[in-house]
Amino acid sequence: MIKKILFAFAALTFVSGMVYAGTQNDAGCGLGSEIFKDNNMPEQVLAGTTNNSISPQSSAITSGTSGCTAANGASKSAQAELKQKAFATQNWRDLNRQMASGGGKYVSTLANLMGCSKNSQGAFAHFAQTHYVSITKNAKSSPSNAVENLRSAIAKDPKMSMSCSLT
């Protein structure tokens, strides 16, 4: 009996969080928003539930599918930066360590996300190591800050800005 009550409470809490907003396609992009297009509360709850459980919205955002495209307001550069920040946040411990040591698969993946050519990934790893202190100075509060600092450092460096498009 207690399990049923706890399950009902958890379900209501989950749904009430999605119902909270209430205007202009609150479910965002994703499979649920493609299926449930009306902007009324029941359909937005269903869209949000679908986006967050059946087909994760993060997958659609990362892949640019199910309505999660630059046409939804984010430029290609902004979308790329979001992907870079999401990757850094999810893999911060390993990425941080590999940037300090000058290479590894996490650094290579970030280089790829930064639009660096395959030939320049070694230079990217060396650049990240050389600029490690300035890249991570504010990153203690957020890996996103490290990505912003890295993007800024790349944009200021003529060689790296030619090798990495940042998108």
Q: Helix and strand layout, with pairings?
A:
Layout: H1 2-19, H2 31-35, H3 41-54, H4 57-63, H5 76-90, H6 92-101, H7 105-113, H8 121-130, H9 132-136, H10 143-156, H11 158-163
Helix pairs in contact: 5-10, 6-7, 6-8, 7-8
Can you give a write-up of this model?
This protein is mainly alpha-helical. The protein has two domains: 2-70, no CATH class; 76-163, no CATH class. The chain contains eleven helices and no strands. It has helices at residues 2-19, 31-35, 41-54, 57-63, 76-90, 92-101, 105-113, 121-130, 132-136, 143-156, 158-163. The longest helix has 18 residues, at 2-19. The radius of gyration is 20 Å and the shape is elongated. 27% of the residues are buried. Residues 12-24 have low confidence and may be disordered.
Keywords:
167 residues, elongated, 2 domains
Number of domains: 2
Distance between the termini: 53 Å
Number of continuous helical runs: 11
List low-pLDDT spans.
12-24
Structural class determined from secondary elements: mainly alpha
Order of helices and strands: HHHHHHHHHHH
Task: Give the overall shape, derived from the CA principal axes.
Answer: elongated
Main pleated sheet:
none
The count of DSSP E runs of length 2 or more, i.e. the number of strands, is 0
Mean pLDDT equals 76
What fraction strand? under 5%
Helix content: 55-70%
Which value, in Å, is the CA radius of gyration? 20 Å
